[in-house]
Amino acid sequence: MPLVTNKEVLDAANDGGYAVGAFNINNMEIVQSIVTTASEMNAPVILAASQGAISYAGIEYLEAIAKIAASKTDTPVTLHLDHGTDFNVILQCIQHGFTSVMIDGSHLPFEENIALTKRVVEVAHPCGVSVEAELGRLVGVEDNISVDEKDAVFTRPDEAVQFVEETDVDSLAVAIGSAHGIYKGEPKLDFERLEKIDNKVDIPLVLHGASGIPEESIVKAVKLGINKINIDTEIRLAFRDAVRKVVTESDVYDPRKICGPARDAMKEVVKYKIGIFGSEGKA
Fold first, then answer.
1. How many CB atoms lie within 10 A of CB 111?
2. Which CA distances in Å does 16 have to 10, 191, 206, 273, 278?
3. For the segment 188-232, what is each residue's pLDDT rounded down to a tens digit?
4. Does the pTM of the predicted model rise above 0.90?
5. Residue 259 CA to chain centroid, in angstroms?
6. What share of the chain is helix, strand, coil (3-state, %, to 5)?
């Protein structure tokens, strides 16, 4: 089927009380592992391409691979720009068939973040493209962050209400204690803050930096209102470990015999995540 928008799959997730996995893509094997698994599990899925992935693979290649993968399944698949910070890149993604874009103005002062997000919404919505924004900043997972420090970088519920009302954004990434990359300790999510935000905001909420967060925390976050969960690092680790095993245990030099096992390993990660997100059978 043709690519669909994030708004379509996330509004359904919001109504149904589950989360849709957003898995970062960089090449064909990653896309195949994600979409094939989602199709087997009858689950909607989001293909997330970062600005770095676009620089590496080329926007035309990512667009073509995503569209071909989506055309081979009846499962809803979206193509989403992850952490867009460059307005020109956002325009480029809209022009090249991305069905969703994220504008990340979380590093800006509150009013500037609103202004930038509104600008993107005004361009994207007339083109049928949904928009995700971020409020608050992902920080480390240190246990000694004070309450005041948390309130400075974590998403404030009242500000979330104002932000959504003024921008008309379709989904909102919230900062509640997760972080990008590999965790040095066990992350502790601020579930009380998440619950307050969900009670005040009607649109789907997004959790970034979810690789490595314990299953029980993910399940609880979904119950409290998270409808989109980003996974990148665990996909990369599965790819690396599978490739390392092949090249260290054999003299194989055929790329298909190296990348094939990596694709299978990534499928297992996607399968597990879809299961705990609650989106299996929700296509």
1. 10
2. 9, 20, 15, 17, 10
3. 899 999 999 999 999 999 999 888 889 999 999 999 999 999 999
4. yes
5. 24
6. 55, 15, 35
**Model confidence pLDDT, tens digit, residues 234-279:** 999 999 999 999 999 999 999 999 999 999 999 999 999 999 999 9
**Residues assigned a catalytic role:** 82
Q: Residue 196 is encoded by which pair of tokens?
A: 């307050």
pLDDT value at position 188? 80
**Residue whose tokens read 């094997």:** 29
Residue range 14-28, pLDDT digits in tens:
999 999 999 999 999
Nearest CA-CA partner of 31 in 73, 65, 72: 65
CA–CA dist 213, 219 (Å, integer):
10
Measured distance between the N- and C-terminal CA atoms of the chain, rounded to whole angstroms: 12
Write the CA distances from 204 to 14, 16, 145, 194, integer angstroms. Answer: 6, 11, 27, 12
The Cβ of residue 180 has, within 10 Å, a number of other Cβ atoms equal to: 15
- Cα–chain center distance at 27: 17
Domains of the chain, CATH where assigned = 6-277 (3.20.20.70)
Has residue 183 got a pLDDT over 70?
Answer: no
The predicted-structure confidence for 58-71, as pLDDT tens digits, reads as follows: 999 999 999 999 99
CA distances from 98 to 5, 6, 93, 101, 179 (A): 9, 10, 5, 7, 26
Cα(275)–Cα(266) distance, integer angstroms: 14
Q: Is the dihedral of CA 258, 54, 103, 90 positive or negative?
A: negative
Measuring CA to CA, which residue among 36, 118, 108 is closest to residue 77?
Answer: 36
